[in-house]
Amino acid sequence: MPTKSTTTRQPRKGLTPPQKLTPTERKLAIEGVPAAKARKIAASEPLFAKLKNGKTKTPLAPERLAAILDGLRRLYPNVVCALTHRNAFELVIATALSAQTTDVNVNKVTPTLFKLYPTPKALAAASLPEIEEVIRSTGFYKSKAKNIQGAAKVLVEQFSGKVPETIEELIQLPGVARKTANVVLGSWFGIPAGVVVDTHVLRISKRLELTKYDEPVKVEQDLMQILPQDRWIQFSHEVIHHGRQICLARKPKCAECGIETLCNAVDKTWSSH
């Protein structure tokens, strides 16, 4: 008995096969929402489900982390450290001065500072009141002046005037903790020894549920565990820039955020989902 041949039915010429609807598109279609608008709404859905309490169900899922990293890279390609510097010594001093102030303020005083004291030896031998006067506008100028001169003295006395290339050695300098050490190692030497955790990185890491901690050292430990090491340097640059431009401490510009669909922060000012 001859068998019946089976053929795959092809769409008629000039017609496109029907597109599979997402659950959201199907729901909106039932409600009478036009297809084009339904597709736009569905496209803005969060990529990862959230719980009833608003938190992301799987915040550390590899796919979510990859989406965050890809989004940041696209938003801020080739972003670099905003502190003006010509060498590792200048970056150490500029980063130390940036505590409790903006990079813009630091960049206003460092040209004069480094013109007067271009080397660790010159800064170490300078008059402390003169240093204070130059950096006064950065705030906390007395303690900062003492620290940067102390750092210069240690560089001269223990490292022959050269900036060391390890975390352990850098944090021996007065006023230099892990954040400053990571900035110098990453931005000048290209060494991913850790993740820079400043106020922006801490805030955004918590909003994205990459950590639950408020202590910079614990936040850095979490980020080092979940992020690929070859992304540590650029991740910090990207997040810091994002924190200055979009993800502000107060009234974040969520409607302008390129990774908003990945965020379920409780203090969002606008949400597409």
SSE arrangement:
Blueprint: H1 23-30, H2 35-43, H3 62-75, H4 88-97, H5 103-116, H6 120-124, H7 128-135, H8 141-159, H9 167-170, H10 178-187, H11 199-207, H12 216-226, H13 232-245
Task: For this entry, give a set of tags.
Endonuclease III, domain 1, 49% helix, 273 residues, mainly alpha, Endonuclease Iii, domain 2, 2 domains
User: Any idea of the CATH topology of the largest domain?
Assistant: Endonuclease Iii, domain 2
Q: Based on the structure given, which CATH architecture of the largest domain is correct?
A: Orthogonal Bundle
Whole-number count of domains: 2
**Mean of the pLDDT scores?**
89
**CA radius of gyration:** 26 Å
CATH class of the largest domain: Mainly Alpha
Helical stretch tally? 13
H/E series: HHHHHHHHHHHHH
In terms of DSSP E residues, the strand content is under 5%
First and last CA, distance: 59 Å
Major sheet summary line: none
User: Would you report the number of β strands?
Assistant: 0
Unreliable stretches (pLDDT < 50, length at least 5) are 4-8, 11-18
Helical/strand content category: mainly alpha
Shape by Cα distribution: elongated
